[in-house]
Amino acid sequence: MTRLALDDRDLEILSILTREGRLSKAELARRVNLSPTPCWQRLDRMRRAGLIRGYHADVALEKIGPHVTVFVMVELDTHRAESLQTFERAVARIDAVTACWALGGGYDYLMQVIAPDVAAYQALMDGLLESRAGVKRYFSYIVTKPVKSVPPPLRMLLDGSS
Fold first, then answer.
1. Domains, the chain, ranges and CATH?
2. What is the pLDDT of residues 127-161, one digit of tens each?
3. β 97-102/109-115 pair status
């Protein structure tokens, strides 16, 4: 896979967009000290290269209604490719599973689930177990309060420093 060469301005553009995706192109250009056209060209180059996958709103879920966020460690019955694919297809169909990562180590997957309440979460998990998705066991960790959620420091990813 060929990596796109990024300079300090590119990283600055990406960093600003991870925090403020609705920023106008003119304001973005002003913040990175470029005129709008070169800023737009950089942005378009990074978008075409797949660095920018989309723009999203950070919604205050608590203002919409009560909910519970649960992190779920999942262990599968078997580790054949077919079993992994079956589980991944099942999870892809569940809207309340807002993120899912395959893991190396003791557990096979980590899921993030957002449900209206614990009963709805448990019904989701019961359905997943009944679906024959291959779940051997799972461990639930209910989020009691958010502490930190920020975009990663892009400079660290580029040059390996922390």
1. 8-57 (1.10.10.10), 61-142 (3.30.70.920)
2. 999 999 999 999 999 999 999 998 888 878 777 65
3. antiparallel
